[in-house]
């Protein structure tokens, strides 16, 4: 929508956002309507300014680490080698892929299919779940930061807090209800094991991060990225780092995920059966910058839909423990490695993160000790 002000056309972004939001049809609704050009709310200025610039990840010599967990609990020599590889990946990359992780491929595929199934239902069926109330048991919407971000991302999302207090099953839509619960069981088990390995990689007792509460909360998001008629003008997900302690991602074969490594955008290629792990902000904070929460993005594409499922290990607004205080782990501090961050509550952090939106800046910078 454009309004006239003293004879000059002025773009009324908020009105456009409200009109789009009120349809409750999401990005998929736009695609289903047959649009050939994307609405202005989705245009990212940095994409417009650099249309002639080609993404450099294809020419990059970097490859995101892949770690094979085979034998991790049966061969101690292998166990120590895997822990060392995890330490190296967390310090240098903040991202790695895992194979032989004991989550059945059938479960991963069913989860991808469940997310796809929800988003491809009729709009009238989906509308009953459309909300921006983060306290609800199950939410469907487009961009959690729709009204905060400088530009809208080309994706729709469903989300649900699965731990520590699982939702009432009736709050979840029938089409993906069972697999959300089954997948979350496997994810919690994997997360507990992974946080033990991360604790060892920090030189701590294997239960250290678990005892801090890092494994208590699980927030599961199912992203749906429709094919985009003008992918060169927008992002599927813009440049950001994740909230919480850790993110575990599964993705289909479409691709588009990139991470920022040594000032280059590096592709994270889909690998059948692999899961992607990345360090999130609160883990960088409690490790006093030893482990890195790295910026990443997803490119929009003319092909699609792309489906991904992100599992965030973190507390949430409605869990009642968001007043818990986190700061750098004392055992990791020394004269040579002084405390970098303040002690903060998860509510402080998440409130700042949600209000800021995905604008490419670090949410951690606000909490640094000056």
UniProtKB/TrEMBL annotation:
InterPro entries for the chain: DIOX_N, IPNS-like_FE2OG_OXY, IPNS-like_sf, Oxoglu/Fe-dep_dioxygenase_dom
Pfam families (UniProt xref): 2OG-FeII_Oxy, DIOX_N
Family annotation (PROSITE patterns): FE2OG_OXY
Alphabetical list of SUPFAM superfamilies matching this protein: Clavaminate synthase-like (SSF51197)
Domain Fe2OG dioxygenase: 214-317
GO molecular function, one term: metal ion binding
Highest taxon in the source lineage: Eukaryota
GO biological process: coumarin biosynthetic process; response to molecule of fungal origin
Keywords (A to Z) from UniProt: Iron, Metal-binding, Oxidoreductase, Vitamin C
Similarity comment: Belongs to the iron/ascorbate-dependent oxidoreductase family.
Protein name per UniProt: 1-aminocyclopropane-1-carboxylate oxidase1
Organism: Abeliophyllum distichum
């Amino acid at each position: 929508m454009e309004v006239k002000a003293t004879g000059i056309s002025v773009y009324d972004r908020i009105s456009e956002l409200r009109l789009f939001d009120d349809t409750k049809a999401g990005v998929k609704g736009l695609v289903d309507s047959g649009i050939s050009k994307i609405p202005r709310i989705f245009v990212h200025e940095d994409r417009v300014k650099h249309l002639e610039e080609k993404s450099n990840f294809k020419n990059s010599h970097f490859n995101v680490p892949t770690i094979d967990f085979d034998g991790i609990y049966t061969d101690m020599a292998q166990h120590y080698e895997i822990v060392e590889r995890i330490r190296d990946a967390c310090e240098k990359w903040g991202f790695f892929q895992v194979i032989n992780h004991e989550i059945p491929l059938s479960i991963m595929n069913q989860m991808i299919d469940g997310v796809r199934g929800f988003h491809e239902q009729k709009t009238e069926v989906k509308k009953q779940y459309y909300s921006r109330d983060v306290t609800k048991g199950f939410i469907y919407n487009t961009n959690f930061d729709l009204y905060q971000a400088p530009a809208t991302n080309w994706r729709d999302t469903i989300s649900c807090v699965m731990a520590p207090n699982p939702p009432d099953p009736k709050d979840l839509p029938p089409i993906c209800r069972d697999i959300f619960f089954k997948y979350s069981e496997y994810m919690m088990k994997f997360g507990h094991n992974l946080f033990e390995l991360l604790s060892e990689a920090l030189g701590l007792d294997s239960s250290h991060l678990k005892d801090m509460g890092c494994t208590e909360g699980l927030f599961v998001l199912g992203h749906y990225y429709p094919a985009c008629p003008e992918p060169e003008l927008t992002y599927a997900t813009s440049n950001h780092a994740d909230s919480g302690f850790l993110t575990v991602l599964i993705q289909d074969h479409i691709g588009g995920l990139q991470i920022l490594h040594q000032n280059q955008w590096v592709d994270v290629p889909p690998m059948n059966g692999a899961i992607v792990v990345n360090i999130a902000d609160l883990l960088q904070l409690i490790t006093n910058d030893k482990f890195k929460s790295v910026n990443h993005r997803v490119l929009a594409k003319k092909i699609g839909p792309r489906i991904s499922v992100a599992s965030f290990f973190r507390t949430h607004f409605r869990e009642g423990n968001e007043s818990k205080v986190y700061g750098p782990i004392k055992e990791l501090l020394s004269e040579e490695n002084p405390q970098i961050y303040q002690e903060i509550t998860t509510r402080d952090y998440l409130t700042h993160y949600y209000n800021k939106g995905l604008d490419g800046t670090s949410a951690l910078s606000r909490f640094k000790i000056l």
